[in-house]
Amino acid sequence: MELEFIYQRHSVRQFTAEQIPEETIKELIRAATHAPSGKNQQNWHFVVITDKIKLADIARIVEKKNAELSTYLKDEGKRKAFRGSVGYHTVFKGAPVLVLVYAAPYETIADMLIADSLMPQGEAMQYGKANPGIQNIAAAMENLLLAAASLGYGTCWMTGPTYAAKEISKYIGFVKEGYYLAAMTPLGVPANANISSTPRKPLEEVLTIIS
Known about the structure:
The protein is an alpha+beta fold. The chain has helices spanning 4-7, 22-32, 52-70, 76-84, 109-116, 121-125, 132-150, 165-172, 203-206, and strands at 44-49, 97-103, 154-155, 180-188.
């Protein structure tokens, strides 16, 4: 079974300075848009940034927001861990490309039940747990990551920096009614050719077959 393209994807956090042709970037985004989406809403929008100064500025925005939010954590251990995560949340500054993935609102049955108020809100909310709107974004992201890996490029699925979503969107000047920053990934040629994935849980632990 030829599934090697799946196993070529790794989380890459260090990149060479080699640039990626614009047409290649467009092809990767096109691959992302061929992901399935609930009700075929395709509730995604991709913003690509290649300017190194902008990438450095966005990293500083994340660092500033991280420092600000840490002051709201009372537990010293949690505060220290959160502050320590900022290095992982800014690895994109070393990549030639940053892809921001925005999501649009997606109405679920839970939203409709809550709006009509005939069912207790707590009960209605359980029907929104699947959150198909964000699953659409996740599917598109995985398409993008796998397509990039198949061409020899590295990526790293990131949601951590989205705590600075408002500030990032304001800085880049992206406004689209109802859309919010849901995820991002750096994109570039891996600086290290010997990359391996973290160990996976045994299949027996995560698989149930009911026949």
